[in-house]
Amino acid sequence: MAVDTTANIWTMMIGAGPVVKMVLIMLVVFSILCWTVILAKIKRFRQARLGNEDFERLFWESPSLTQAYSHARVMPETPMAGVFLEGYKELKRLQKCPKPRDTAISLRIWLETLERSLNKGIQEELSAMERTLPFLATTGNAAPFIGLFGTVWGIMSSFHSIGLKGSASLATVAPGISEALVATAAGLAAAIPAVIAFNGFMSCMGRQEIQLQGFSNDFLNTVERQLLHGKETSQEP
Predict the structure, then answer these.
(1) Handedness of CA 21, 22, 26, 27 (dihedral sign)
(2) pTM of this prediction?
(3) What is the Cα–Cα distance from 23 to 10, expressed in whole angstroms?
């Protein structure tokens, strides 16, 4: 005769003591929040990847930085567009400043200033992408210990029942131990997806940083070529 394991687990959860029940509720909440973060981040990283590809193509197809700027303004959720906007705005501010007589010094100052501005833009974009990821790390680290606390409490309850009934039969200790093991399983169920997702997202963050750094270098090279040829980098529309 087949045993309905799911029904048995549900029955154990309902019949668990108040402490173990509180632990289980806490772990369920952690698990729901983790999956919410995971699904939202999957969508966000996909949008960022596709947006970066589109903007990079538009950047190279644009005849001027002004044209690229017009594209970047309508792509606020694209990290690469955000980095470009940070650099472009700094470039416009530099164009309004008095230029040193020495062209080489002027070029070096401009490029160093732009590089700092672009690095700032990269850090801001990465920080925005990283938001809520620490929650996954926290869940991955804390959930097993929360489940372990429920396990220990359930075993303590089983030994207390043995002391009250004066019997160490399986029927006496099985319910409490079963509740305890359910708490352990719930802790692992919350922690394992959180750890896997966190590691995967951090790997995506690393690739994102490399891509943005590469684009930053392309932006600086474009500005340097225009300055060396004595061309204006175009005016803001």
Answers:
(1) negative
(2) 0.79
(3) 15
Radius of gyration of the chain from Cα atoms?
A: 29
Type of residue at 129: M
| Domain spans, the chain | 26-228
Residue 26's identity, in one-letter code, is: M
Report the alpha-carbon angle 70-119-133, nearest 5.
95
Which residue is it, tokens 């309902």?
14
Tens of pLDDT, residue by residue, the chain (237 residues): 444 455 455 555 555 667 778 888 899 999 999 999 999 999 999 999 999 999 999 999 988 898 999 999 999 889 999 999 999 999 888 888 766 665 666 778 888 889 999 999 999 999 999 989 999 999 999 999 998 888 887 777 666 666 666 555 555 566 667 777 788 888 999 999 999 999 999 999 999 999 999 999 999 998 888 777 655 444 343
Is the Cα torsion angle 121, 72, 70, 216 positive or negative in sign? positive
